Structures are given as structure tokens and as C-alpha cells.
Sequence to fold (456 residues):
Amino acid sequence: MPRPSDSSRPRFAAGCRWGSHGEDRVVLFPEGMIRVEATGLSILELVDGQRDVAHIISTLAERYPKADPTKIREDVLSFLEKLHDKRVVDF
Amino acid sequence: MATLHKPLALIAEITHRCPLHCVYCSNPLEMIAAKKELATHDWVRIFQEARQLGVLHLHLTGGEPAARADLKELIQAAHVAGLYTNLITSGIGLNESRLAALVEAGLDHVQLSIQDATEDRANWIAGTKAHAHKIAFAGAVNKLRVAFTVNLVVHRQNLDHLEEMIAFAEQLGPNRLEIAHTQYYGWALKNRAQLMPTREQIEQCMSIVEAAQKRLAGKMRIDCVIPDYYARYPKACMGGWGRRLLLIDPAGQVLPCHAAGVIPDLKFDNVRDRSLEWIWNKSAAFNRFRGEEWMQEPCRSCERRTEDFGGCRCQAFLLTGDMTATDPACSLAPMHHLVTSQQIEKHDLREETTDVSWSYRATVE
Fold:
């Protein structure tokens, strides 16, 4: 499947939502869950069906001014692609 | 003392009442009458206790869960307790407005089982005219924002048209397709002679599933597990006895799996008498096959014992009469011939038998 574009508005797929498992934040989906940590967590918290990918990338770039913007962009695109393949995120 | 894990999933058999009579039903032959079912408030308390114990996923099943008039209240209570709710249904008893109310109440996932691709054959397996209704039900699910799994239950009588079944399932519009080989407990064990697939069917099934997985990648997830009679090693049944999962029957008995009732001398505690936490941690039934103390050889010294836990205790008992034996589905099991000779015998039968006589699942009021 293709990567999201800058104007894609990612959102949780039907039946996928936040949950908690002990201290961890997890994403629950049919028959399973994914633990989300660090970078993934900060990306996924911005996934709401409203913000587009460009907005998510710029928000993270502002939040982490010391990080390489190219790397942030790559992280966001590959993370969303991965979750799309798992049918957790739609865009 | 074995390490005590926290349960992740609760299977709630909220009723054994069902309008279908599927020949592979996993319900016990002795089903529980409506008047013995737990009340709404019992289930509400159970859902809260389950979440506190660590449970994430709730699978509402039966029988047909929609046979309970309080299904919406149950889903709402589970959702409020923080559980992810999955409804395993035939769709019968759920029209568009009732289904919409369930989703509104917090239902996350609907799982619809399909018996075959064509109406006559599907109804033959279900023992009821359910197929047309299921198609209409899938249409209703697609109008709502809820995860949707179609479950194709496969066995010898329908595996020869698996491609047609997958194509049919695609039209129903699910996000996920599960291809579930019949497991031989309850009514399915009674009908095993007519349901057990041949080795050729299993091999063909695997290549059809692989092709479909490739073709539908990114569109629909396809999960398929090969039946354990044909696998080299047994399944890690329920992720290990008392490790991941608990099941509560309509009358409140708490079991480590669907079939555990067949094992003699196991006393199951009831949520009417004990807390779920006590039952999970302390009950004799849940502790019976935890750890490795109970194992015989070859399990006891097998390096796979921490992966598949000696296989399924219920199957070991049903086939060998010894609940601590290695699951005969394991190629290393001393009693493995019980499974292989059946395969051969059934394969021979297949060419000769044209009539199939089913023991249809009984009705319970």
C-alpha cells in the first residue's frame, strides 16, 4: 500500500481505539492490541481524522526542535504506513 | 509454583439459546436453560471485576447473544468498565435499529459466521434458514462505524469451494476475514466423521488462503489457523491453561476454555459464590494444569513445553482418556496414531459416502 501524502488525514480504523494495559497506553483492535511507546505515541496522539500529515509533521518538528526534520518526516510516514498495513489506521 | 499471569480476554457465553443448529457448534451437549442464566447485574459486576483483573477484550457469545433482551445494557456496562467488546453473532435477532443501538452503547467489533457460499448449503450446515438473513445483517453492519469480521467455518463439506466462499465473504464487506477450521468439541465432535477434512483439502486450503492474503493485502486481513490434527505440533490451547483467557458459561461457571467441562473431577467455581479474582488465582480448576508439574513424558522434558504447554487438555482427555497425556495432535505423542488413523479412515470414507447424517445442535429454551 502507498504511503500517506501530506494532505492525507489519518484516523483510527473502525474498531481500533485507545486503551490501557497496566501503566502502558495501548491501541486495542479486534483480537489484539499494540503497545505504543515513545515516538509512536507522540505521532499517534495526533491522529484524529482532522489533522493532515503535513500538520502532524510540523507539530512534531516544533515539539522536537533538535531533531532532524527529514528524520521526523520519515518516522511519521513509515509509522503510519505500518499501522495502515495492520488495519489500525486509515488515510 | 507456576507464575501467575493476568487474563487478557474473557469469553462470556451469555446464553445457550440459539435459533441455529450448526453441526459444528462448540457448546456442550448438555446446554444451560434460560431460567438458569445469570442476571444483568451479575454480568455487570463480572465485567468490572474482569477489567480490574487485567482483561482487555470481551467476547460476547452464546448460543446467540442477541437472544438476551438485555444485550444493549450488557455492552454498555462492558464499555463503561473499559473493555473492548466483540459480539459473536449470527445476526438473527438484530435488525438495523437494534444493531445501531448496540454500536451506540459502545460495541467495538462484530463477528459474523458464515456456513457456506450458497443458501442451500449454508442452511444445511446451520440446520436453519439463516443465510439470507446473514447477508442482510452484513449490509446493516456496513452502515455503521464498527469493526467487522466475517468468520468462515470450514470443514470437509465446504472446503472444496473455499475460493467461492472467500469471494462471497468479500462481498459482505468485512475488514477482516477469519478462516476457522472446525474444532472437535461439543457437537462438532459428535459430527467429526462428516466434518474432518482430508489432507488434500488442508493443503489446498493453505494455498488458496495464501493467494487470497496476497490479493487482498492492505484491504482485508485474513487469519487462518490450520487444524491441529494436521499440524506437526499441537496448538498452545487458549495460550496455555489459566494463562490468558477465561470463559464464563450462562449459569456463571468459570472455565479455562470452552470444553473444560468434559474433564472429569474438575470442579468449576461460580461467579455467584466467588469473586473472579479468587477464581482466577485460587480455584483448583484454574490451577490444575498451570506450570509443568502435571506433565508426563515426552512433554516434561520437551523444549516446546513452554510454547504449546503439551497441547489441549480437553482433546487429550477426549481422545486418550488421560487428561495429563500429551495431546495426540502432537507428532511426538505416544498416542498420535489416534489422530492419524482417523485421518486415513475418514479419507477412505469420503469417496464412498454420499449421504451425510448430522447430529444437529439441539434447541434449548
